[in-house]
Amino acid sequence: MYKLIHKDGQAKRGELHTVHGVIQTPVFMNVATVAAIKGAVSTEDLLGLNTQVALSNTYHLHVRPGDEVIRKLGGLHKFMVWDRPILTDSGGFQVFSLAKLRKIREEGVEFQSHIDGHKIFMGPEESMRIQSNLGSTIAMAFDECPSSTAERAYVQDSVDRTTRWLERCRTEMKRLNGLEDTLNPKQMLFGITQGAIYEDIRMEHAKRIAEMDLDGYAIGGLAVGETHDEMYRIIEATVPYLPQDKPTYLMGVGTPANILEAVERGVDFFDCVYPSRNGRHGHVYTNKGKMNMFNAKYELDSDPIEEGCGCPTCRRYSRAYIRHLLKAKEMLGMRLCVLHNLYFYNTMMEEVRKAIEEDRFQEYKKMRLEGFEQSSR
Amino acid sequence: MYKLIHKDGQAKRGELHTVHGVIQTPVFMNVATVAAIKGAVSTEDLLGLNTQVALSNTYHLHVRPGDEVIRKLGGLHKFMVWDRPILTDSGGFQVFSLAKLRKIREEGVEFQSHIDGHKIFMGPEESMRIQSNLGSTIAMAFDECPSSTAERAYVQDSVDRTTRWLERCRTEMKRLNGLEDTLNPKQMLFGITQGAIYEDIRMEHAKRIAEMDLDGYAIGGLAVGETHDEMYRIIEATVPYLPQDKPTYLMGVGTPANILEAVERGVDFFDCVYPSRNGRHGHVYTNKGKMNMFNAKYELDSDPIEEGCGCPTCRRYSRAYIRHLLKAKEMLGMRLCVLHNLYFYNTMMEEVRKAIEEDRFQEYKKMRLEGFEQSSR
């Protein structure tokens, strides 16, 4: 289902064929945590932002409104009115980062909802059932994401358990996809490599799960506190052990520069809350680096955020207006910044794909990184 | 500039020709307090909601970002990117309702900004200069809006001062419109009748200012705590003394039922924060009355807010999705409700205009009022 179209160095230009359409890679997935992009951005807006894939969070949707509710309403695509691909994470990361009082056992994890404190149990089977109820295009395996500073012995045990969990995920997903009333019988499963910053554990884990013939492979447990150099080192150590004929997904990454570095190292899929979170705080991305739209110097600035940008915000509104809205705490200010940022990320990925096709990714990356640094000069 | 096209009873169907286009009346003006509709609604969105006129607040824009800033940026139309008519209020109402520690003198009012407490003086000339800097299509006269429970003697004194202020507004507006570098030399001025709930003071005031040949006349100081019946009584007492060949504007009103009652009594212009404020709280208008979208009964409801509604929300999203967004405190939930409500108000006004043209306003009003009451059954 993944077709490698072209390689430029290690950078891959590919296509993932799904039941909800073809994903051109490398791709940035736009984060719609609770089935909505934060910043009052609707799925209708996403159509104007060159968005290919929306990403939603299993844990959040399980606790509210409930995956059974979404299933009864026809699944996540119908619920949020989005007919293109949706990837759902497994809930693992949120269980380990958001939920309180968790207890990890071989079966899975017991934890308290961050909404109302009620007890929830989630293991590989539960995660697959929730994602099957959501009917996403791509489901992620249920894994443990150990801290980047965890002890080696803990990480090794955790990774071994994550492998056993992955086998259970695969079995359960196969069963669910075969049920007569399943929402998406072609739901794909991506496995996740873990191993904190221990290269040998990462390599070993990648090798083991590569043999399982999954629809794609993710690198998890990065961008959780380690340095950028450590992150790049782990990507370099891991990617060679993942199948070339499957998409590679670097979870939760990152800045535009992080993405360019990871594309260079062979990564196809990305997701990150930065464009929407930064947008809500008035921080916008441009070809010359980030801008803080609260800055007083934009008070009388009638230019768009970025000259020549084709996003719905820059085509119409000035820096001065956006700054005013943000200062006045008008929701519209946040919305306009988020629209711009998502367009920026999605457009950069378009350019990345073109650059790889034309064997000039190195040149493109250099040009972009030099541009981003201009704002700090 | 106002053309009375047709009358059905006292209900007027008219047109106000302005430098920013023709306004079809009766009309509901969409409130953009600080040059933005609350609920992350942009002026681009307004184009899809059949909006004819945006209304912005002089007081708010004077304190932030400052009317001089907006003037330097080319005026309010350019600032918020809206080339259709804009009405600005005079700041009077906000000075009396929002600002702290105000002192009223013959010259004007001294008060403290609600943002940072700094002292501001505003009188008729200041209000006109601010509105001239904003370059709105229609400026409102600077008036005092006494409480609906104020003593008769106070109200009489206040109304007399408001008349003297109106003369000063007219003189200053004329001067400003004649300046070479004025933004909108065709800026219109509407006078405001006051008089709390004293019919004789209202009638006398209406007669006096009707002689001043202004571009339009507003009924101010209503919907500030009096009953609906008192409000309708005052409208009935005032409208006959205002010129038929000028538009009549009932400020800050109101519910859909209030608007229908006032149209019947000869009112042309309306504005109210209800559709946007209620929308942000998940309260939406339908032909069968209001709905609270937080209600648990919508959890699995895949219908739109209102079947057959052509608004951007109902064309795409379900009650269940909107309820979920509101419960999850996603800004998108508020936005979708505000879009629906503004469309509802603007569409009702379209129907009102058609009903008057076809001499069936009474019938239309009866049908609407009966519909609105269904939700409480």
UniProtKB/TrEMBL annotation, chains A, B:
Stretch list, region RNA binding: 252-258
Catalytic residue positions: D89 (proton acceptor), D271 (nucleophile)
GO MF term (any one): tRNA-guanosine(34) queuine transglycosylase activity
Primary enzyme class: transferase
Pathway connected to this protein: tRNA modification; tRNA-queuosine biosynthesis
Keywords for this protein: Glycosyltransferase, Metal-binding, Queuosine biosynthesis, Transferase, tRNA processing, Zinc
UniProt-annotated binding residues for Zn(2+): C309, C311, C314, H340
GO biological process: tRNA queuosine(34) biosynthetic process
Domain of life: Bacteria
Free-text cofactor note: Binds 1 zinc ion per subunit.
Required cofactor(s): Zn(2+)
A Pfam family per the record: TGT
Domain tRNA-guanine(15) transglycosylase-like intervals: 10-371
InterPro entries: ArchSynthase1/Queuine_TRR (IPR050076), TGT (IPR004803), TGT-like_sf (IPR036511), tRNA_ribo_trans-like (IPR002616)
GO cellular component: cytosol
Transmembrane segments: none
Annotated binding of substrate, by residue: D89, S90, G91, G92, F93, D143, Q194, G221
Enzyme Commission designation: 2.4.2.29
Reaction equation(s) it catalyzes: 7-aminomethyl-7-carbaguanine + guanosine(34) in tRNA = 7-aminomethyl-7-carbaguanosine(34) in tRNA + guanine
Assigned protein family: Belongs to the queuine tRNA-ribosyltransferase family.
Role this protein plays: Catalyzes the base-exchange of a guanine (G) residue with the queuine precursor 7-aminomethyl-7-deazaguanine (PreQ1) at position 34 (anticodon wobble position) in tRNAs with GU(N) anticodons (tRNA-Asp, -Asn, -His and -Tyr). Catalysis occurs through a double-displacement mechanism. The nucleophile active site attacks the C1' of nucleotide 34 to detach the guanine base from the RNA, forming a covalent enzyme-RNA intermediate. The proton acceptor active site deprotonates the incoming PreQ1, allowing a nucleophilic attack on the C1' of the ribose to form the product.
Quaternary structure annotation from Swiss-Prot or TrEMBL: Homodimer. Within each dimer, one monomer is responsible for RNA recognition and catalysis, while the other monomer binds to the replacement base PreQ1.
Protein name (record): Queuine tRNA-ribosyltransferase
Origin organism lineage: Bacteria, Bacillati, Bacillota, Clostridia, Lachnospirales
